[in-house]
Amino acid sequence: MTETYLVGVDLGGTTIKLAFINMNGVLIEKWEIPTNKKDNTIVEDIAKAIEEKAKSIGILKDQLAGIGMGAPGPVNLETGVVYQAVNLGWENYPLKEKLEQAIGLPAIIDNDANIAALGEMWKGAGQQAKDLICVTLGTGVGGGIIANGEVIHGVRGAGGEIGHITAVPEGGARCNCGKTGCLETIASATGIVRIAIEKMQKIETSILNDLYEQNCKLTAKDVFDAARKQDQAALEVIEEMSFHLGLALANLANGLNPAKIVIGGGVSRGADLFIENVTFYFNKFAFPAVAKGAEIRVATLGNDAGVIGGAWLVKSKIMNQ
Ligand SMILES: [Zn+2]
């Protein structure tokens, strides 16, 4: 019997991650291609990459069940139209239709943070919990909310936008979305650096000041490294970030009563420094029964979460039809 494979695609602003995954969620082959924004040959590039890779490793097109893909923006799950992807200059872009035409395989499209949440649910830290919140702390803050096994999309595909929960109602920093005081302005890599620059101006003995002078910039990693050396300013940044993340997750969890809360993204590499603090504030602010039912865990799939979640979409939505 020939094996069937699921194709997962994670479309980012600079690279496109692709993978062939078997029915048990095991990565068989994964690779990346650059995102060609300039000529907007993204769909053709993906179709070509999949066809060439399949050929080179001896997989027939008939063995591919379909493509599950994450796009960087809100998506209409039914039509596969990307409402908006600012990074790619797309507006109301019929991604599903174009991709299916280009490759002749069924496709299903969701938001990139949502497919990462599905990946962590299926094969990662979510451990197949049907009620799960996944928050991705990267340059920005993304999120996916899964209730009873289904991703929450809402009427404009903007469900699960955890990064834009208001954390600071008055006088907060400006967010890319146009509001001020969003969680993203605090718990993202950019937010951590912004708070660090504020703190180091107050605490002049901080090693962050030296780093800033040397490199003319700071990174979230600098802040974490400084915190590991017990630098006061860096520890205060982590305290502030943990408070707001714990509070936002608690308020969100009160509406969902999830079993797992998964924290991923590049910033989660510093999770050893903040996970306990976040859990402390989460438990403090969540309704007691909600706090009791939820476990906060660090994501385990890293950059593979998206392609694995895309594969899960093919398995659960396309193959179950
Ligand atoms: Zn915002």
How would you explain this protein's 3D organization?
- Helices cover 40% and strands 22% of the residues.
- The mean pLDDT is 95.
- With 321 residues, it is α/β, with parallel strands linked by helices.
- Zinc ion binds next to loops.
- End-to-end separation in angstroms reads 22 Å
Shape descriptor: globular
Number of strands: 13
List the strand order in the largest sheet: 3-2-1-4-8
The helix content is 40-55%
Tell me the radius of gyration.
20 Å
Average of pLDDT: 95
- Number of alpha- plus pi-helical segments: 11
Low-confidence stretches: none
Sketch the major β-sheet: 5 strands, mixed
Which structural category do the helix and sheet elements fall into? alpha/beta
Percent range for β-strand residues: 15-25%
What is the string of helix and strand elements? EEEHEEEEHEHEEEHHHHHEHHEH
* Bound small molecules, deduplicated: zinc ion
Map the helices and strands.
Layout: E1 5-11, E2 15-22, E3 27-34, H1 42-56, E4 64-71, E5 75-76, E6 81-85, E7 90-94, H2 95-103, E8 107-111, H3 112-123, E9 132-137, E10 141-147, E11 150-151, H4 184-187, H5 189-202, H6 207-215, H7 220-228, H8 232-254, E12 260-264, H9 271-285, H10 288-293, E13 295-298, H11 305-318
Parallel strand pairs: 1-4, 4-8, 9-12, 12-13
Antiparallel strand pairs: 1-2, 2-3, 5-6, 6-7, 9-10, 10-11
Helix pairs in contact: 1-2, 3-11, 5-8, 7-8, 8-9
The site of zinc ion (ZN) has 6 residues, from loops.
